[in-house]
Design the sequence.
């Protein structure tokens, strides 16, 4: 209460000089608004609000960072620096952004987190009340010790959210709300746009049989991941469900299916605090993204506090948290994700005023993430967990949304037996080779040779997994973990979207399977282009291995994408099935390389390791990179894929974007306007 009295006074008093007075008044007003919101949520006041009142409230929570207002927002580091100066602008923009986590805390009634943020604001404000302005170092140290000292609360809570089904804030909304009353969307505290409202309306209009079909494909894929991976699902008691708002009717049906399997849902929202974020990626449930540029501007805010003592502190908290919740972690089965696509493409603006990690911090972040992954794997074992992921369009994709949605449902429910048998023909050809040669055509300069593992018992071994829409929906790819030594050449794609970011003329060069050079054509300078890739594809690693090579076979998806002109809007989950794709980072079998995996014909997939991952046997810290990013070459940019066999013999798989391997020609049907049967 004392903290709120002090913050309320900040709105009117003149104890700080301009331009900082306006900043603190505006920030204090936001905190006062959050306190009122907390109280309204506590007494159930939101339940009685009309839809219009809830929309007005939602707009007031997020309007400051929306694109139309962002130019005059302290959340915009460029504006903050312009108004508050080079010394204080960036770091006060960071503080402003951290305080916005109070929206989440108010809705979830997390009073402790709200109180510590109030105290943080007061402490920083007190510095600016002095006769002399505080130094950058003074403000930075306040923020540093706040993030570090309270990591025991913020990081521990995040770990618990991932494994404890008793934290059921979102589950209650999904299972107890009247989903025909769209007011339920505003109970989360997420930003709600027309997109989420229209998605929920659309889902409400589907027949129950369709909803059950969608949910069953999703949950059955998860179950089959355990069966095909020869993992014991009966040991598991929880599943992490990830989705975007508007899909609640399908999620409700999925929860019922999971409960029939003996799995309780664990549903947590995307992180609100910088300490738990990972760049621009949102892991968990979320609503509309108010402003992707805002997220991008604050992608490296950890630069404020990331040093070696902090990294050690966070890792220590992580270890303690998992030990505390180890019983819950041991019975956690892994994530089941509903991805979306169709949002307007985003090409970010790079701002000098945004924080950037130094080279030392980049290496520290890589090390911290790697060691964190090792901790997680000790408690949620990679060889005992699974996952599934499926994707659907959202109304923002355009006026053809209903037809596109129907097409995607068909794509997600294709007869996997047809693809399985055809893909076996392809795998049998690939297994005859020592390497695969991939070339682009037209302006695409891809020219890459991928080395394959040597089969010592071809009758019982294979290099490629026959992917048939279990964990990875839809059907339509064969994939392997290449041998790095001898894998070399150039990978290029005209335009690709990775984790919501656009890359134009993405170009990567490999030597012995490792990325050696990279660039794109997004920015005016080579320095900016390389920084963009290093931050968002390499995740600050100096290099990454080619962890996967695959050939996508889902020409049905490709034809649908061309029909509606949505090629550039598809998620990688579908796009990777529409041509060859290459993943930089960990292999597909990360943390589970010693678990035998078999295709339906009984052949064991032996290509589960490469020269990087095998280092786990001596030093696990060198074996895993904590990332895996798929890059697809679309058929129209593809000149050829051929198998290179011993003695110079070659086996063509694709020529000029067409399947030419005998027995696979039926895949060309959708490209010609006929169905694949």
Sequence:
């Amino acid at each position: 209460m004392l903290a709120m009295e002090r913050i309320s006074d900040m709105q009117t008093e003149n104890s700080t000089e301009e331009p900082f007075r306006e900043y603190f008044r505006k920030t204090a007003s936001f905190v006062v608004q959050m306190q009122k919101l907390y109280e309204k949520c506590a007494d159930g006041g939101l339940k009685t609000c009309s839809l219009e009142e809830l929309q007005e409230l939602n707009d007031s929570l997020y309007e400051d960072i929306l694109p139309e207002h962002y130019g005059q927002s302290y959340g915009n580091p460029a504006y903050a620096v312009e108004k508050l100066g080079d010394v204080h602008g960036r770091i006060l923009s960071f503080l402003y952004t951290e305080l916005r986590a109070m929206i989440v805390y108010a809705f979830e009634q997390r009073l402790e987190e709200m109180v510590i943020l109030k105290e943080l604001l007061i402490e920083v404000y007190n510095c600016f009340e002095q006769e002399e302005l505080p130094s950058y170092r003074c403000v930075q140290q306040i923020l540093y010790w706040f993030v570090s000292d309270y990591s025991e609360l913020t990081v521990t809570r995040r770990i618990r959210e991932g494994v404890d089904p008793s934290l059921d804030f979102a589950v209650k909304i999904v299972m107890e709300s009247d989903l025909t009353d769209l007011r339920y969307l505003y109970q989360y505290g997420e930003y709600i746009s027309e997109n989420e409202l229209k998605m929920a309306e659309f889902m409400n209009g589907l027949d129950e049989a369709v909803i059950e079909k969608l949910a069953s494909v999703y949950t059955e894929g998860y179950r089959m991941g355990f069966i095909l991976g020869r993992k014991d699902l009966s040991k598991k008691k929880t599943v992490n469900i990830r989705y975007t708002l508007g899909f609640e009717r399908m999620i409700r049906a999925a929860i019922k299916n999971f409960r029939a399997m003996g799995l309780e849902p664990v549903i947590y929202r995307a992180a609100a605090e910088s300490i738990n974020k990972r760049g621009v990626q949102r892991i968990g449930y979320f609503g509309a993204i108010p402003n992707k540029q805002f997220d991008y501007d604050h992608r490296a805010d950890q630069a404020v506090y990331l040093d070696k003592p902090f990294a050690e502190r966070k890792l220590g908290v992580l270890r303690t948290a998992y030990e505390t919740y180890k019983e819950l972690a041991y019975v956690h089965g892994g994530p089941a994700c509903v991805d979306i696509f169709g949002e307007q493409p985003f090409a970010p603006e790079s701002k000098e005023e945004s924080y950037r990690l130094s080279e030392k911090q980049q290496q520290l972040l890589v090390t911290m993430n790697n060691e964190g992954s090792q901790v997680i794997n000790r408690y949620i074992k990679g060889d005992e967990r699974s996952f599934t992921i499926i994707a659907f369009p959202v109304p923002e994709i355009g006026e053809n949304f209903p037809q596109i949605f129907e097409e995607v449902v068909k794509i997600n429910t294709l007869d996997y037996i047809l693809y399985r048998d055809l893909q076996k023909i392809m795998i049998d050809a690939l297994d005859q080779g020592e390497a695969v040669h991939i070339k682009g055509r037209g302006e695409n300069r891809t020219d890459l040779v991928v080395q394959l593992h040597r089969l010592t018992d071809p009758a019982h071994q294979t290099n490629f997994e026959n992917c048939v829409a279990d964990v990875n929906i839809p059907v339509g790819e064969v994939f392997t973990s290449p041998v790095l030594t001898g894998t070399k050449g150039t990978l290029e794609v005209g335009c690709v979207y990775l984790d919501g970011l656009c890359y134009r003329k993405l170009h990567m060069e490999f030597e012995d399977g490792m990325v050696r050079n990279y660039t794109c054509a997004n920015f005016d300078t080579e320095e900016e282009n390389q920084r963009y890739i290093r931050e968002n594809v390499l995740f600050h690693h100096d290099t990454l291995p080619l962890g996967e090579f695959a050939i996508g076979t889902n020409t049905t998806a490709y034809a649908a994408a061309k029909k509606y002109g949505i090629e550039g809007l598809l998620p990688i989950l579908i796009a990777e099935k529409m041509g060859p794709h290459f993943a930089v980072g960990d292999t597909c079998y990360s943390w589970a390389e010693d678990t035998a995996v078999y295709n339906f014909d009984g052949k064991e997939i032996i290509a589960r390791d490469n020269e990087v991952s095998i280092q786990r046997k001596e030093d696990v810290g060198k074996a895993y990179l904590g990332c895996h990013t798929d890059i697809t070459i679309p058929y129209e940019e593809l000149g050829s894929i051929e198998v290179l066999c011993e003695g110079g013999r070659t086996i063509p798989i694709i020529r000029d974007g067409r399947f030419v391997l005998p027995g696979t020609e039926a895949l060309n049907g959708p490209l010609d306007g006929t169905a694949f049967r």
